[in-house]
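chain below, 343 aa
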Amino acid sequence: MATPSLIPAGDFRTSYAADTTIFPSSASRNAAIVGALLICFAPLVFTEYWLSILIQIGIFAIAALGLNILVGFTGQISIGHAAFFLFGAFTSAYISNNLPIPVFFAIPLAGVVTALIGLIIATLAAQYILLDFFSRADWFSGGSVPASANPFSIFGYTFRGDRQYFYVVLGYLLVSYLLVTNLMRTRDGRALVAIRDHYLSAEIMGINLTKYRTLSFGLAAFFAGIAGALYAHYQLVVSNEGFGIERSILFLAMIIIGGTGSIMGTLMGTAFVVLLPESMEWISASLRGSAIDKALSLNTNITFLREIAIGLIIIAFLMFEPDGLAHRWRQIKTYWKLYPFSH
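prediction:
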């Protein structure tokens, strides 16, 4: 009688290469490839409205990924991430409007310039410093008038509409996540994690704390700048409105809910936060005209309720699931992998 195949329940990695591999198994690698291919068909399936939601998730996930390098992998805190996001948006719009540089090259340049600013202003006060700069530098930000941004173009071809711009954001999202995944496998990436886990031990091992802490600010600003540039060329206008400290707190919520120090969790947390207002709108519509609606005035206070919901969710995750959605997803996979046995 044939012996049934058994699924190993332990961790049998015996080399550094196996320990740092991106995909723990060929099945997970194949699933990621299939998932990436399937998402390419989204413009053929989803409506314009849901495509705009997916584009927002992709853009904000790139920004949140940068913040996770700083907070999740290095153990530092930042409440100025939205300002770097906005700086990248203004920079890319300024470059493409005033220099003979196409948008395709303006976006990475905006990321580099934002990274340089992040290296210089590696401080919690960056949010207020940059917002004050935007309000004064009319030549750069347009002042009280929103700055215009050109549509995304490459080699003379202009991407118009959500169905075409979706592929632009998807391309930048995949490249960004591959870059950060591989960064964490390098010496510099391990140095950032060592600083987070125990900075005194890291310093004794010869890791330059100032260098890597500053580097983490620069990397976080780089991805925020890339995301901001993508946002600018998607909206075609850029303004200061909506990018105060509350937006920085939303970016923090994305990585806390998804899981600090988790690349996959960053995407999950971003999707959760972006879809939360849609859920609140659905709840508001379902309760319209009811006693609860009259008591809470849901139709007029939906933004207020969203802020309350995000705050409560952050507290709940910090108390009951500090490792975020990524940890819960790993537990679900482990459960089904070992089902019906438990360990």
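Residues 18 and 24 are 8 Å apart (CA to CA). The chain has a mean pLDDT of 83.
thats it, cya
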